[in-house]
């Protein structure tokens, strides 16, 4: 019986990894341009980190975590997201003591959620995320949003929508929470089971419930924007002004509450509006989380960040028919005729590789015709042909495949010749 990959996971094979690498390199270059530094945190953490960080009342913590006891009897969880771990690393390693502030961090990596798999929703998926710790400047909120958008734009995506909201500070949210409880309590029995418990634990989450979306009480629910206190309102205005001067357009949606408990003030999501993208349209989500460092035992530190799903990004590229400029052609393939030439081919590919030239040869014992076919299959730009005649003369035939030309080159000149032809490699 053969064994398959677990449900909700996929193998990413070479044709796809070429795209992943291109996407990652583009994003890395942008993260560097915005002056962010990479962090790599463990893939598993103490379960308590996510209970305290992401929040006990969230779907992620209640239903979706891969939690197990290790051999030492500790409760361990595969990370469902990157923010809690990044903030933990910031606190544990006292990055707040670094003279360079704020800490502008980014990460790539797999995340794990036990969700019902469907297109765009997996049990192991990959995120690129950034977290800025130590700044309360509304301009950094706009920078974070701007970086998220420029990742998509740099890859050619056009059908994007930025949705923005403010969840206000603790006081604003407390007042809003009370208003929501007052609003939804009379119709509690008509709400789904999840929302009935959300009403007590986290009434804001009722607003993004998929089941109760069309419930009449949803449409008449009070808006968070009417409950922002002066400070929160001013903060939100400043974030919007910064976005305006950067020429970034957005839609304010007071129902955008996000699925994690740590948010306050700015919350945002970027959606794909491409036709045929699929039912789940959110490409990235993020927001401000000023209390999180303290919740996990660190000093009071403001924070903001986002994460984007890389599978969804690739799906969006497909939906917009964007071909990434990936060069998968091989530089040089060496074809050998006869036993002596075969051994010499071993030396030549090795020499070429040591000189920085991408090269390959046959390892299947193919006849000459088969070797040419193999060179063709990997779209080799140059095919070197070597037989007894050439060996005696210490030359080699160099075929330029695109031009259809052939030249006999002295063996001693081969490397500089190819380096020049391949553009100074
Ligand atoms: P999130 O909204 O849970 O936020 O996830 C961010 C993105 O990860 C989603 O928009 C989506 O693209 C991708 N994603 C999430 N779950 C799945 C899944 N099951 N399958 C495929 N892709 C998925 C966070 O994770 C926060 N940590 C973001 C953040 C960073 N907030 C502040 N800083």
UniProtKB/TrEMBL annotation:
EC number: 6.1.1.21
Primary residence: cytoplasm
GO molecular function annotations of the record: histidine-tRNA ligase activity
Enzyme's top EC category: ligase
Annotated keywords: Aminoacyl-tRNA synthetase, ATP-binding, Cytoplasm, Ligase, Nucleotide-binding, Protein biosynthesis
Record has Membrane as a keyword: no
PANTHER family membership: HISTIDINE--TRNA LIGASE, MITOCHONDRIAL-RELATED, HISTIDYL-TRNA SYNTHETASE
Record text on subunit structure and interactions: Homodimer.
Protein name: Histidine--tRNA ligase
Organism: Aciduricibacillus chroicocephali
């Amino acid at each position: 019986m053969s064994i398959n990959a677990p449900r909700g996971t996929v193998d990413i094979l070479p044709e796809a990894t070429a795209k992943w690498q291109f996407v990652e390199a583009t994003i890395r270059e942008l993260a560097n341009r915005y002056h962010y530094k990479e962090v790599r945190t463990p893939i598993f953490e103490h379960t308590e980190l996510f209970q305290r960080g992401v929040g006990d009342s969230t779907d992620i913590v209640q239903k979706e975590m891969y939690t197990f006891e290790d051999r030492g009897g500790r409760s361990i969880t595969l990370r469902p997201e990157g923010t809690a771990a990044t903030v933990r690393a910031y606190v544990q390693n006292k990055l707040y003591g670094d003279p360079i502030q704020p800490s502008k961090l980014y990460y790539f990596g797999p995340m794990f959620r036990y969700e019902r798999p469907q297109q765009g929703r997996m049990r192991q998926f990959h995120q690129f995320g950034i977290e800025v710790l130590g700044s309360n400047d509304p301009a950094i909120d706009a920078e974070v949003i701007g970086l998220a958008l420029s990742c998509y734009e740099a890859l050619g995506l056009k059908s994007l929508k930025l949705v923005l909201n403010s969840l206000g500070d603790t006081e604003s949210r407390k007042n809003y929470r009370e208003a929501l409880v007052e609003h939804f309590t009379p119709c509690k029995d008509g709400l789904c089971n999840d929302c009935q418990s959300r009403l007590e634990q986290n009434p804001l989450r009722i607003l993004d419930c998929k089941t109760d979306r069309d419930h009449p009480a949803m449409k008449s629910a009070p808006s968070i924007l009417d409950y922002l206190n002066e400070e929160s309102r001013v903060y939100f205005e400043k974030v919007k002004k910064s976005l305006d001067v950067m020429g970034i357009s957005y839609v304010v949606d007071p129902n955008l509450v996000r699925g994690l408990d740590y948010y306050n003030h700015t919350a945002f999501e970027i959606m794909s509006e491409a036709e045929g993208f699929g039912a789940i349209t959110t490409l990235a989500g993020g927001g401000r989380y000023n209390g999180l460092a303290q919740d996990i035992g660190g000093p009071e530190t403001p924070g903001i960040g986002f994460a984007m799903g890389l599978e969804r990004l690739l799906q969006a590229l497909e939906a917009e028919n964007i071909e990434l400029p990936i060069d998968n052609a091989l530089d040089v393939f060496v074809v050998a005729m006869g036993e002596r030439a075969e051994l010499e081919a071993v030396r030549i590919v090795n020499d070429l590789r040591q000189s920085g030239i991408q090269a390959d040869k046959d390892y299947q014992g193919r006849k000459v015709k088969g070797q040419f076919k193999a060179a063709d299959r990997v779209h080799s730009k140059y095919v070197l042909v070597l037989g007894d005649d050439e060996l005696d003369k210490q030359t080699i035939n160099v075929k330029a495949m695109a031009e259809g030309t052939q030249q006999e080159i002295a063996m001693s000149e081969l490397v500089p010749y190819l380096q020049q032809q391949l553009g100074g490699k």
